[in-house]
Design a protein that fits this description.
This protein is α/β, with parallel strands linked by helices. It has 2 domains: about 100 residues, 3-Layer(aba) Sandwich (Aminopeptidase), CATH 3.40.630.10; about 100 residues, 2-Layer Sandwich (Alpha-Beta Plaits). It contains 6 helices and 9 strands. Strands 4-5-3-6 form a 4-stranded antiparallel sheet. A 3-stranded mixed sheet has the order 7-2-8. The two termini are about 15 Å apart.
Length: about 220
């Protein structure tokens, strides 16, 4: 199978999506030395070793970012884990899990350099949790993109709203393989992965109509 086009059906509020941010999740593990918590100076707290990276992320708004239609990259620590002999012992290992959403022009090296820029500690392990998924944005003159806007106008009798997703989807893979991709789906993207996420039945029916006409008339 060699597809020419792809439609990602993630929530878009029934707007046509022509690009989105990339994604790279990494784990950084720091190592210390355990000791009794009453005598912490006899050990090395691995959590404290992680602090420079935490500070970089918290103060990241001061970073000079690439100019991109996707805006600024976003990044956050999603999980912190530590290993210790007991709750009254200095942790001898600590791990940060970081979710980085990249923009155009960013690479694995540029992201790694940013995360580690304030780190003087040498005893750590940097582990990507998956392949780097790059950001992408379709050229506004792309024929398939123009076709999807025409289909939208035919379906709903109005001009399409076209936006960029702030999250990442499988579109990073399809675009990497030169499969022209757009996003379109029912549901509010700002509620994705939230406990109050919902989709209107009427929006599902509207999406089905769009998908049906889009694929039926595609050449």
């Amino acid at each position: 199978v060699k597809p020419s086009y792809c439609v990602i059906c993630e929530p878009s509020d029934l707007k046509i999506v022509y690009g989105h941010k990339g994604k790279w999740c990494v784990k950084i593990t720091f190592f210390g030395k355990t000791a009794h918590s009453a005598l912490p100076e006899l050990g090395k707290n691995a959590i404290y070793s992680a602090y420079p990276v935490i500070r970089t992320i918290v103060e990241g708004k001061n970073k000079k970012f690439y100019v991109s239609p996707l805006g600024k990259p976003t990044f956050t620590i999603t999980y912190i884990d530590s290993k210790t002999n007991s709750l009254n012992s200095v942790p001898y290992e600590a791990s940060l899990y970081i979710d980085y959403r990249s923009v155009l022009g960013e690479t694995e090296n540029s992201i790694k350099n940013f995360l580690l820029k304030n780190l003087k500690e040498k005893n750590f392990v940097f582990e990507p949790q998956h392949t780097f998924f790059p950001a992408w944005v379709l050229d506004k003159t792309d024929k398939f993109f123009s076709y999807t806007k025409d289909v939208y106008k035919f379906c709903f009798n109005k001009e399409a709203s076209c936006v960029l997703w702030q999250f990442c989807t499988n579109g990073s893979i399809t675009m990497k393989h030169k499969i022209t991709t757009i996003g379109f789906g029912p549901g509010n993207p700002f509620l994705a992965h939230c406990d109050n996420e919902y989709i209107k039945i009427t929006d599902i029916l509207s999406a089905i109509k769009f998908y049906s006409i889009l694929t039926t008339n595609l050449k």
